Amino acid sequence: MGTTEFSVREPTAKEPTATEPTATELAGLYERMLLIRRTEERLSADSAAGKLPGAVHLYIGEEAVAVGVCAHLGDRDYVTSTHRGHGHYLAKGGDLRAMMAEIWGKREGICRGMGGSMHVADLSKGILGANGIVGAGLAIATGAAFGARLDGSGHVAVCFFGDGAANQGVLMETLNVSTLWQLPVIFVCENNMFSEFTPSHEVTAGRIADRARAFAMPTHEVDGNDVVAVWQAAGQAVERGRAGGGPSFIEARTYRIQGHFEAERFVLAGGRYREDAEIAEWRARDPLERLRARLMSSGELGPDTLGALDAQALQRVDDAAAFAEAGQPADPDLALTLMFAGAGE
Ligand SMILES: Cc1ncc(C[n+]2csc(CCOP(=O)(O)OP(=O)(O)O)c2C)c(N)n1
């Protein structure tokens, strides 16, 4: 131990401790969650109206995870996302208009309309991309953290991934190498209890967080619908990563309120994979409503301010949707040129 450049983590006496968000921070968390929620409600409606060119996987009900984590990140920190990536992109500060245009397949999109919903990315904001390959972000984030470690920049990389992705072999590889090399990566497992139409308990053995514990990695298991709990765990993990304390693992238990993707009913053809009562139970734990109730009861934000924030979010979403609808269709000639780094610039 200690003979290589990258030493194995020794627990230190100075582990980060959880703090409480200020009233301003809480309001910021609420505003960001609200924007994601209203954006995706609009996408759901536009998908049902047949306006969107492809499938959209919505994050409704899971917003507290992305927002609670990304509140601690700056533009030079990295995130990798999943096929359910709009919330991560917006929580990390991605441009709403450019994301909407991307989902609509327009040239004005953040990837010129060539990527669509499952590939929203903005490298200038450290958003390394949503990804249709389940589990792919694990290795990408670990590589980004390796770069940050070599640069000594103090930046961290966050990998958001699902409980389904937690069953990919690459999780073991990245837990191993990030521990061995003490990389500033934060693994955030969004355990929403389903992998497509299969309940987690049918395909996942043991507790997911225990996989990280096997590497003696600092691990947090949190209520993913409680943005403050997520914010606190992420704050500790980010602080640890920036200070050279190596990787952390957060398992956030949450639930996706919408289907695996919008219009899934056409695939299911009348088949069912979850009960209405279960969805209702989770609706009652809606992370946005919980934060709203907390802000109201503590008197931190009154009904007028909350109403104004709602109107503002809706206005931003309307503006972005109009921008996307009025955009130019993506240029098919870019399909080959954009295959290669540096091409098409
Ligand atoms: C490597 C790979 N295997 C399978 C799929 C098909 N697939 C798409 S989404 C998904 C479920 C992923 O579940 P989870 O990681 O829990 O994410 P969630 O959809 O619940 O957010 C699967 C199996 C894929 N896209 N990539």
Task: Characterize the structure shown.
The structure is a single chain. The longest helix has 26 residues, at 23-48. The chain has a single domain (31-260, 276-328), classed as Thiamin diphosphate (ThDP)-binding fold, Pyr/PP domains (Rossmann fold), CATH 3.40.50.970. 44% of the residues lie in helices and 9% in strands. Strand 6 (219-223), helix 9 (227-242) and strand 7 form a beta-alpha-beta unit. It has helices spanning 23-48, 63-70, 86-91, 96-103, 136-151, 169-180, 200-203, 208-213, 227-242, 264-268, 276-283, 287-297, 303-325, 334-337, and strands at 78-80, 157-162, 185-191, 194-195, 198-199, 219-223, 248-253. With 345 residues, it is an alpha/beta fold. The radius of gyration is 20 Å and the shape is globular. It has 14 helices and seven strands. The strands form two sheets. A five-stranded parallel β-sheet has the order 1-2-3-7-6, sandwiched between helices. Strands 4-5 form a two-stranded antiparallel sheet. Bound molecules: thiamine diphosphate (TPP). Thiamine diphosphate is lined by residues 82-84, 132-134, 162-165, 192, 194-196, 260.
What descriptors fit this protein?
single chain, 345 residues, alpha/beta, Rossmann fold, five-stranded parallel sheet, two-stranded antiparallel ribbon, 14 helices, binds thiamine diphosphate
Q: Per DSSP, what share of the residues sits in E-state strands of 2 or more residues? A: 5-15%
Helical content class: 40-55%
Bound molecules: thiamine diphosphate
Distance between the termini: 46 Å
Q: Which overall shape is indicated by the principal axes computed on the Cα atoms?
A: globular
Return the structural class: alpha/beta
Q: What pattern of helices and strands is seen along the backbone?
A: HHEHHHEHEEEHHEHEHHHHH
CATH topology: Rossmann fold
Looking at the overall shape, the CATH architecture is 3-Layer(aba) Sandwich
Provide a count of the helices. Answer: 14
- For CATH, the homologous superfamily is named as Thiamin diphosphate (ThDP)-binding fold, Pyr/PP domains
Give the total of beta strands: 7
Count of the separate structural domains:
1
Give a quick account of the main beta sheet: strands, pairing sense, barrel closure.
5 strands, parallel
Q: Please tell me the overall pLDDT.
A: 94
Strand arrangement within the widest β-sheet reads 1-2-3-7-6
CATH class: Alpha Beta
Rg (C-alpha, Å) = 20 Å
**Low-pLDDT ranges:** none
